[in-house]
Design brief:
By secondary structure, the chain is an all-alpha fold. It folds into two domains: 166 residues, no CATH class; 53 residues. This is Branched-chain amino acid ABC transporter permease. It holds the Pfam family AzlC.
Amino acid sequence: MTKWNEALADIAAGARRIAPLIVAVIPIGMVYGAVAATKGLSPLETVLMSALVFAGGSQFVALDIWTHPASWVSLGFAALLVNVRHVLMSASLGTKLQAFSGPQKVFSMLFLADEIWAMSEFRARETVLKPLWYLGLVLPFYSAWVLSGLAGSLLGAFIGDPALIGLDFAFPAVFIVLVTGFWKGSETGLVLLASATCALTVHHFVPGVWYIAAGALGGLVVAALIGGESEEVPA
């Protein structure tokens, strides 16, 4: 097999791995586009947000607090708060990019998404994570997100309220699938319980999107405590 064929095989393998999640993310992108249309964003503005921000959670939060004129400080801070989890995700994935050059590592982090991170972590458990395989994840997933947002924007008037036809559940459904892939028994359950408890508590008492950071912090603390206990081996 030539190097060109090997490269195509790596890209195709990555694309096959991400394909089921692409099917799941398309309705989410369409919901985003439909909501953006109701907020007065043009199809071009909708596409540019998807292409430049490329962060579903942040985009939905930004639309939720969107005003005319838009408060760029509030929007930027909300997006930063929602995406603070990417610091932990990139720190985890960064230890598995030995086959990546410096520029390739930067590229990989620019296009990091929850689904791409999860598939990369699964792959790293099986074999060495290669740049072209990662590219196979990014290209179709990124394209699907941008194009589905455009479709949702153009069809927004026909879709109406996404909640009425159940499309609003597509977003949490994807995360449920990702979580089940990382399930390790009761320890994972405790981390999820701590994260959910912290998030729900803060959401009830504190306005804004602080509950996202609280949930991440609560889960992280419990995961660290459980990890520390598991490392203590009796002499």
